[in-house]
Design a protein that fits this description.
The protein has 987 residues and is an alpha+beta fold. 45% of the residues lie in helices and 20% in strands. The chain is elongated and about 125 Å long. It is a multi-pass membrane protein.
Length: 987
Amino acid sequence: MSYKFKILKADSTKVYAEIPTCYTVILSSVQDTEMELNGVDELKIPLLEHPGLEDVTDRTVMIQISDIKCASCANSVESAIRNVNGVKSIMVSPLDGRAAIKYSPKLITAKKIKETIEGAGFRVDELQEQKISVCRVRIKGMACTSCSESVENALQMVDGVKKAIVGLALEEAKVHFDPNLTDANKILEAIEDAGFGADLISSENDVNKVHLKLEGVDSAEDINAIMSCLKLAVGVNHVEMDLTEHKVTVGYDPDFTGPRSLIHCVQEASCGPKMYQASLYSSSGQIGKDKVNEIRTYRDLFLFSCLFSVPVFLFAMVLPMFPPYGNWLNYKIHNMLTLGLFLRWVLSTPVQFIAGKRFYVGSYHALRRRSANMDVLVALGSNAAYFYSIYVLIKALTSDTFQGQDFFETSSMLISFILLGKYLEIMAKGKTSDALGKLTKLVPDKAYLVTIDADGNIITETEIDTQLIQKNDIIKIVPGAKIPVDGIVIKGQSYANESMITGEARPVDKIPGDKVISGTINENGCLLVKATHVGSDTALSQIVQLVEAAQLAKAPVQKLADHISRVFVPIVVVAALVTWLGWFIPMEAGIYPKHLIPKEVNPFELALQFAISVLVVACPCALGLATPTAVMVASGMGASLGVLIKGGDALEKAHKVKVVVFDKTGTLTVGKPMVVSAVLFSQFSMEELCDMAIAVEASSEHPMAKSVVSHAKRLRQNFGSCTEEVPDVKDFEVHVGAGVSGKVGERTVFVGNKRLMHACNVPICSEVERYISENEILARTCVLVSIDGKIAGAFSVTDPVKPEAKRVISFLHSMGISSIIVTGDNYSTATAIANEVGIDKVFAETNPLGKADKVKELQMKGMTVAMVGDGINDSPALVAADVGMAIGAGTDVAIEAADIVLIKSSLEDVITAIDLSRKTLSRIRLNYIWALGYNILGMPIAAGVLYPFTGVRLPPWLAGACMAASSLSVVSSSLLLQLYKKPLHIE
């Protein structure tokens, strides 16, 4: 039997611990949760931790320690701290007594570290905690993996930046930095200095900030009036004005004010005829506009280039094939300069320097960074063709005998095809986040804000923008409408369709006191809902942010593309040079038969065409897109199916899983234990047994403890006791994985399993042993109650197996994955559950650290292990496992420790997560085949390997089309993951 407890402070002399609440239960059985209307503290807890910090959990604290005289003292401090749970590293300087301690705030606090040092006999004079901030930045102009690496390197060089992750497909960066050393503006400057555009999407401090666009502001007096009014408003702690954009940024406390109140405050600042107006300024809307503008820019550039390059192509390739119609092109303007050559130069020049300007700019910044990217290859190829053609034009103009072939059509068509490829690629990349877009659109644009009287009757009703809803607002939800915020029902009764969030197909009954989730649909009745979580605090918003963070994180398989891209461009340039020399020298030396050289070109020109084709066809764009686009689509699809994958690392590891370790209670079982019988084993009465059990178990939060308490209360009422008083308990103690104990009056009471009784030297007679055995065969757990060293009685508790468990285990076996139960419960009960669902191996009576050890044992045998659990006692094993999967209705600590969260709390999603991972890795491999296949096949053909035997060669403009097609094919391949269907669907 495994227990999960929150240990509360009993008195000032006892050590106490509070379970961290970075996460609370995700969407945990909303339909079964009844909450008192005055449960204010619970309502303040967000449903999910803000994902902006999900991978920056470690902090560093600087401590000044007195009494350090020598290296031995420093070693003493390090020894005292190093083994404390949660401390990652410590460095103590024996010279000045300063210590830098890196720790996990989820497991320990800076205050606790200070107390530990003082407990070791040293005095702490100063404690300064290093804070890490996070910002997300939109990056413009990245073309390939080389670009994303350049941005990462530029960011890493900024003083104060601790970590920078750049996502090529998402076109975003997430930067972790020390706000004491740098800020978001310096980070943007670093990106721009590297040659890329940058816009700030959000920062950690933006959580309680609102950006307002002002109207009617013309002078300094207007600005001062508005700022003064805002600064005096209740709950406002920061006001910042942007004069160029007439925008004001306001930091506020959401418990006291909100966007609607701040807009009203700006309007109230109006004086006389001067009227001020304010509206919400959304950076997300600006990002959408930027994306549309980028698509439109590439489209316009392509059409512009086509306007000139199509005539060039016609004049160079088509009309000369029809002599009557193309003869006019051979008219000589001066010397050997023909009209056709002159027109091709005039028409190709705007394409080269206007449509192709972005390649020059990109090449300049890349070369300035001492790197090379796609822009360098395109610029080299197009410039080689264009400037050689200029040489031909000048020679034709100045000579009356010169004959040469120009390549103006090559440079213009090459740029046109690459612009077409980029346009189609950006269009396709926009679809990779379709699943995420559908989630964000679940929230309605408008909502009905109402005010009510003391009896709950509606006094006023106003339609407002959903973004203007504030905490504690009362929102009216009509039948068929979407619920705009997370909140609690205060009036009305209805059913809510939560399938789009939880995957639960059946509508959930909602009555006063029940929670509702933003984005779900109110089926039939009218509800009044009090908003408890708005904006980025809603479950839906945090799911979206968590998936966005996962899409930004690089999967380990991406490292292959990064390594290849790092050396790919220089290799391609060398290959192009070797190709040119490999053709030019043999042809000039007469080694290559002259009759095989086309009459319209000389050896130099033919060799140059081969070299340009090699340069262009080998661009590494597709290679860089192979992994991130697949991860984006897969994580979005996972979220829409109720499987939250926290990063590319988890997505990649899940496909290797060969063993799934299951916790029992709340994972394989429903997690709602019920007491089916209670018996007495001594002279104590049933009423005494119930009183003792209630007193001790009331301090526990374990589901089994709660079921014992509720059953004991019912029994006590049956025996005529109507009092609701719970006797006081002293010396309350938790025995991890065994039970609890305490003193009730003068009596010492132990409540727990057989292991607890043996550990506390409580004798167990044969009658009790027989009762335990009989129940364990029936997969029931016996909770024994000992009073003053004697077994007073026992409660038989059963926890029914989840209906889908047997089919899930069977399906895992068909996938070649074995399953194991690791539980703190007794062996007989665990074996009975295992036999029922089809699991062969059982490890029972295991404490939390023992669960982690079992996972490590399996890993030592070379197995990739997934752990599925829901409780606090599962969190060590979830962290130790290669892939930790937390049941959505589990505890906050388990969800925090896991790599994958199963929102619906359904075991079938264990299969979904593993199968989706397999499909994604298979798709990534296929993407690499597409990307590398173009290069492996295209480069030899472009270099002219087939030409001596078949006469087949790849013109540069066609090589450009192939390069564009490679990127498009990789993105399209990733988009096919949107067709993914769950392999097992259990109603």
